[in-house]
Design brief:
410 residues, alpha+beta, Alpha-Beta Plaits, 5-stranded mixed beta sheet, globular
Amino acid sequence: MDERLGQLLPTKDPDIEAQLHRLRVIEFLLPLILGVNELKQDDADLLAKAQSLGIVPSALASPRFCFLVSKFKGADGSYVANNRHAEFIDNLFARHGVRTESIIAYRRAVTLVIDGGNGTLTNLLELPLTETVQTARRMLSEHCTIGVSRAFSALSECSNGYFQAVTARRYTSDGAGDIRFIADEEKKEELAIDQAEKTVVMLEQLLKVGTREQLNDFIEGLYRSGTRENANLLVIQMIATVCRVVSSVSDRPDAFRLLASNPLFSRITANSTEEATKHEILDFCGRAQALITQSRKRESEVLCDRVVQIIDERFSDEGLSLVGVSNELAVSPNYLSALIKKVRKKNFITLLTERRMQAAHDMLLCSNLKIAEITERCGYSDQHYFSYCFKKFYGESPNRIRQTTVGGQP
């Protein structure tokens, strides 16, 4: 075990070149993931810089990226991620042929995954993610939880990817799985949330350095192209952005006077004391939280019902598997497995085996099919293995069940 761990963890005295490379990676990635640049950087320049640093292979003309955010919790409950964990992740993923660059930020291991874009992200990452969590538990005696962002193709989207991974990892707090993909947890509403976030960035830039004409054209364009629902969301985002930008460049009283003079803001705050506003916000947030919880529970149940339906319809398919079903439902295998255990209190294999055994039992009692035919119709290619599973499930062999129940012929 110590020898295997030594292959994953770095030595205590890494060579100077490796240290310099990691510093260059941090200097490049950290501003991107924190979004500290006011103006969007040119994607071609960013890619060229990443290639010159050795982060992205030059052979990848159209790379695909995603972020992982990992936390490692020690036996005392404290978070212990450090540079050795970053190299631990990179070494482990490299064993699976997946290129990564990891840094440590805010007691998290932040990992940029670099891929050529072949296959689905969940299939590419399933094995190294699972091994990371299991190896951390077995060899480091640490509890590792990981969040995974959506895939993106432009390095200027690093900030969005990072915060998606941070959010995804927080979903592990429900105990339903240590690996969570943001795509499993949250639907991608491009016309609502993503557009609102992009609008905020552009609005902030125009407030600071744009002309009045550019600002007017931008806002008019939003109302021409958006729906009523999106417009309401954008109004809330824009009020918050204006307040924040004005406060950052002017005296605070100026910001308050601006807001107080605006009829839109006045309608929101009219006839409300600070205490009343606080209670209204608490009630609003509480009801929103309850709605989110109820919605997630309902979606989880619907997803599990769909799994059971697929098993009912295709249990005779020998190739039916958790990975295949998860791909069909557009969720990760880890997420689907954890969800089934949480909702159904059983794993996928147990549900599939139960359905196959039920079908086999019915065929034995209600047909004259030979055992070999029943074996095939129940998704098994080996009659001896089928008989083993059947006896384990019912306590008696298929021949015995048929003979004692109906006196039929095997």
